[in-house]
Specification:
Blueprint: H1 2-9, H2 12-29, H3 42-49, H4 53-60, H5 68-80, H6 87-97, E1 100-105, H7 113-126, E2 133-138, H8 144-155, E3 160-163, H9 169-180, E4 184-188, E5 199-203, H10 205-220, E6 224-230, H11 236-252, E7 256-263, H12 268-281, E8 287-290, H13 295-305, E9 312-316, H14 320-327, E10 333-336, H15 339-356, E11 364-367, E12 370-372
Parallel strand pairs: 1-2, 1-3, 3-4, 4-5, 5-11, 6-7, 6-8, 8-9, 9-10
Antiparallel strand pairs: 10-12
Helix pairs in contact: 1-2, 1-5, 3-4, 3-5, 4-5, 7-15, 8-9, 10-11, 12-13
Protein name: Transcriptional regulator, LacI family
Pfam families: LacI (PF00356), Peripla_BP_4 (PF13407)
Organism: Christensenella minuta
């Protein structure tokens, strides 16, 4: 395979000459990494392939701008000679640049973000040898002015900024302004419309809403009086979940009656009060789609105001409060969105982009929606 790839890249005369070199190196010398052996280098791969060092470097570091034929040739030779990246060299280059990655989360009071933050810290720990510093800042609630002020402040000292944005035009404009100043911008856990962020890292919220409706359809036999508790209408992901839920409901469950929607602001106290109002205004509600946080407050309100009735409730995320409520029989299913992976991958993507000088290959990094019931908690 290696020889055939090579033959397509150069003329027959040169191919014949280099075939001898490749055969000699691979069979008689066999460049491998290990104690007492020779470590394959970019220079050696360049010499073996007849491709410039710059091209080899772009292929091995994923920087693009290389023809598919040359990329296949370089990767085949690199595999044959056992090439491994020079981690120490990359670490030295990174230290000279001192990358600072900012993470801004509206996470205070929302236990879901504990795992997101753990993922952020794990990525930072793994990138320690590269001289990466992660600056984490948290806020409570969805105050546009507070988020804009924090973005301004963090944008002064960071090479990349990762945030879970409020879906507001002013926030989108700020993302664009920071991007214009050279700060790489990423959205985490929820996205935002009409901006130039490089990549969104999180779940498919529309799909999550569809899954939730399907679960409630199974639990109720397709007949239900539905109330929806969402976090905030200013969070794009929460809106997408509701749209996904309604999409399935209107197509598949004609006997679902959608009666009310209220916000929890991802807060248990507000969730309790919103649920109390909803159940007072619509006492016939027997099914609740809990599209965001505030789960404990919502379920406490159900217990307090409808103690004799058993409602069908589907929520999101596997946090200690949700598990407790599932074991108590208040929640029948919850949909998880891999919070650790979200935090971890966001920092890794930002670092790789800074190192390579190229934006991520994809504009979205979607984590899997995972259904949990009592039996697989």
């Amino acid at each position: 395979m290696l020889f055939s790839l090579f033959s397509k890249a150069v003329d027959r005369k040169r191919a014949k000459h280099y075939h001898k070199i490749i055969y000699y190196v691979l069979v008689h010398i066999k460049i491998v990494s290990g104690f007492g052996a020779i470590m394959a280098t970019i220079k050696q791969i360049s010499e073996l392939s007849g491709v410039s060092r710059g091209t080899v470097d772009r292929v091995l570091n994923g920087r693009g701008h290389v023809s598919p034929e040359k990329e296949r040739l370089v990767r085949s030779i690199a595999e044959q000679v056992g090439y491994t990246p020079n981690r120490a060299g990359k670490a030295l280059a990174a230290r000279k640049k001192s990358y600072i990655i900012g993470v801004l989360l509206a996470s205070e009071g929302n236990p879901f973000f504990g795992e997101v933050i753990r993922g952020v810290h794990e990525a930072e720990r793994e990138l320690h040898d590269y001289g990466v510093k992660v600056v984490l800042r948290t806020q409570k609630g969805y105050d546009v002015a507070a988020q804009l002020a924090a973005m301004d402040e963090m944008g002064e000292d960071t090479n990349a900024l990762i945030l879970n944005p409020i879906n507001d035009p002013a926030v989108a404009e700020k993302i664009n302004a920071l991007s214009d100043r050279g700060v790489q911008m990423y959205t985490l856990n929820t996205d935002i419309e009409d901006c130039r962020r490089l990549c969104y890292i999180g779940s498919d919220y529309f799909e999550g809403g569809r899954i939730a409706c399907g679960m409630l359809g199974l639990l109720t036999g397709g007949v239900a009086n539905v109330g929806i508790l969402t976090g905030s209408v200013h969070i794009l992901g929460h809106k997408q979940r509701i749209n996904g839920f309604l999409d399935v409901m209107y197509k598949k469950y004609p006997k679902f009656r959608f009666l009310s929607i209220m916000e929890t602001e991802d807060d248990d106290m507000i969730g309790f009060e919103s649920t109390r109002r909803m159940l007072t205004e619509y006492p016939e509600i027997d099914t609740i789609f809990l599209a965001a946080a505030g789960v404990y407050g919502v379920c406490r309100a159900v217990q307090s105001f409808l103690p004799e009735r058993r409602l069908h409730i589907v929520s999101f995320d596997h946090i200690p409060q949700t598990e407790e409520l599932m074991r108590a029989g208040l929640i029948q299913a919850t949909i998880c969105q891999q919070p650790f992976a979200q935090g971890y991958e966001a920092v890794k993507l930002a670092f790789n982009s800074l190192m390579n000088g190229m934006p991520p290959a994809e504009q979205q990094f979607i984590v899997k929606n995972d259904i949990r019931i009592l039996e697989n908690l």
